[in-house]
Structure formats: C-alpha cells, structure tokens
User: Fold this.
Amino acid sequence: MPELPEVEMARMYLQATILLQPIRAVAVLDERILFGVSAKALELSLAGKQFISIQRHGKRLFLRLQDDLWLTLHLGLTGRLVYLQAQEDEPRHTRLLVSFQNDCSLAFDDPRIFGEVGLTKSPSILLAERKIGPDALQLSLDSFLEIMRGRRGVIKAMLLNQGLVAGLGNLYADESLFQAGICPRSRGLDEKELVALFSSIQAVLKTALSTGANLANLPDSYLLPHRHEAGTCPWDGSQLKHEKIGGRTSYYCPKHQKIVG
Ligand SMILES: [Zn+2]
Assistant:
C-alpha cells in the first residue's frame, strides 16, 4: 500500500510528465474509482485545461487545474499512475485515462479499486471534509506533541490514524516504532518517548525518500528489510514478533522495543 514516500514519488513523477500539457479528453473507465463526482462532471471539468501544479498531503495528491479547481487522487491499496507515450497500451486495470493534446496520456491503474478520484475547490476544503490531520513531514515537533499528548490509544493505531497525522501506513509506522525502540502495543507515551518517536518518523520518511521509496535500498539496520516471519532484529539478533495491533499485522523486536507508557 502506498504510504507517504511512495505518494511523494508519484507526485514527482507527475511533475516530470504531465505538467502544463493541455488535456484533450478524459475517460472514466470504471466509475467505482470516483468519489463525490460523476464521470460526466469530471470529464467536462478537465477537458481543455492543464495541470498547473501538484501537491501532496499525507497519502493524497492534489492536481491544480485552476485556482478553485483541483483533481484529487488517492492511490488506495494498489493504485499507480502511468504516463503513456502515444500508441502505448494502457495498463489492464486502468480506471481513469487522461489524454493530452501531445498524444500522451495518464492512466490511473488500480486492480483492487480502493483508490479514489475526485474534484475539490481547494486541498484545505477536502482535508477538512475528510478530517485529515497534518502531513507527517510538514508537522513540527510541537504540533506532534500537542496531537499525541494525553491520548490513551495504542500507539500503533494512533500512527495509522490519518485524522491525527497523515502519511504513515503499516510499514513506515512499524519502522518508526522500531527505530524509536517502542513496542507498537504501548499506550500513553510520555513527552520523552513522543520526542524520540517524532524524530524516528522524520528520519524514516526522509531515508525512504532518499532511496526513491525503494524498500530494497533501505539501510540494513532498518526493520523493513527483515520484516518477514523468519526475520531477526538487525540490532540484536532477536527473532522478530508479529501480531495484529490496531487491526494490522505489526512486526517488532521483543528485545529492544519496550512497552512504554
Ligand atoms: Zn532488537
């Protein structure tokens, strides 16, 4: 599932391909991908315009068409964006196809259709409507402490809650807790633990971005390269544990990740 680093890569990919290309036509190939807009309205809103800039917030992309009109994209579990050259066939599960006047096109391919396409007047309106919290990489330490302080929820579930902080999913939440030495089942973290967790989140996301969101290129001292049933902790050799926490399978080291709070 794409998390903040993967979505940031998608933003850069769009920035390098579709910006300022006049749109010739838009085809919604599967309406299940739409959220709060009809195929007709989407097609009419985009035709003849161009994407002026592209922003990301958490796991969402916002493509500006004009000051008060933005296309919104969420890649869901299996969504990906593919820029096609003229005559190139679109991917098999293309749900939305934007064709440009230069004969190239952008396909939103999404086999499982948990992705989402919509329109909004501004990113801030959509973020408020959907109750999305601040972006994990834009967030200051003070805001993070303000959001997390005094909450009694299981920390893993809180990190996955996009209403608190947007951008982390199952993998990078596990990695951040691993790096901070905090067991995902912990609750009620104190100030010092929250500060450690905040700095882990920042470091993990920045490291992931520096690898181009390629999990295979993460440092060996990270959990993710070892995050499988037979995996051992790269810090102390312990057998990694895995269990459902906050509804998702969580991997952690039973030795150096302490239950705190
Ligand atoms: Zn360990």
